[in-house]
Here is the input.
Amino acid sequence: MTSTEVSPPETTHRPEALADSIRAAGLRVTAPRLAVLLALAESPHSTADRLFASVRTDLPGTSLQAVYGVLAAFTAAGLTRKIEPSGSAALFERRVGDNHHHIVCTRCGTVRDVDCAVGAAPCLTPEDASGFAVQAAEVTYWGVCPTCQVELATTLSSAPLLLNKGAR
Amino acid sequence: MTSTEVSPPETTHRPEALADSIRAAGLRVTAPRLAVLLALAESPHSTADRLFASVRTDLPGTSLQAVYGVLAAFTAAGLTRKIEPSGSAALFERRVGDNHHHIVCTRCGTVRDVDCAVGAAPCLTPEDASGFAVQAAEVTYWGVCPTCQVELATTLSSAPLLLNKGAR
DNA sequence: GTCCTTGTTTTGAATTACTCAAAATAAGAC
DNA sequence: GTCTTATTTTGAGTAATTCAAAACAAGGAC
Here is the structure.
């Protein structure tokens, strides 16, 4: 229980550390679970499908449903967090327990973490919440990532994909 | 002609006004489009499916795909806005062009508009955007709506559904 | 170390939300 | 009224995710 730590490099990749965090969450340690956690350390914002592909290289017998199961268990246990940016499949990340947000590239879909704009608990206070008891605020920024900015400037410019924010 | 009562806001419910706004967006005026717009006036945050059901009562021949088509055209034309709160199907609303956000009830899924907490263009400036050129910021609040608060307090309390924010 | 219980994964199928495409239809300019 | 072209219908397909039963294995009991 306790300790949803935020992770120093060692704890994010060392098998024993990974196993410990799984156990600490009250879950059994299994190969697919370790593999998913490791894959998430390598690409911190991944779809189930991407993780499945990654896990498969080490553990060819693993099924996609297993990955979904692992992610559901992890997310329920607070070991991972699930985010669902408009227009993409759900993404999972290991950075949990802090209140951070995300910026998504409207051209290539890349996601980066963004710390709270306004201190620790940000936009958590809408002026008029219509009587709702507010529990959380989730911010998604949309923009063009550095790489795509360059590509656009270089007039490699083809039609920008425009994920689906502005119009569309 | 002359004066229908002042009951519904005129521009959001009057057929001619609806038709005008569709035409103004450069689109042809059709029965399904009018019906969708009207249905949206009645429930301002609706899924395609909900709108389909609503439209069907007046226009039984309408297909679900037509509704999807109408909504895609409207959204591309800036006549409606599409929002996709985690864990639910896409919702559509007619309030566009202003920068407003949403609060979603974690128990029943109800959605309400929320005006910007921090002036007109809010969290639009993350402290560190990792070099992204930020185009938009989207805020989703999660909480318990007044009705559900009462129901929970009344210890009608069954297991709260917990849409899917905190854990799960 | 072996056994047993119970959580986890596999296997196989179903579901939801949504998209695509061709043919039929109808708005609106003429 | 006619014609062009946007829109809708009809019919099918897909991606992401979930459900359920049976096989399997982690970790505590012995």
In short: Chain A touches chain B through 49 residues (CB under 8 Å). The longest helix of chain A spans residues 64-76.
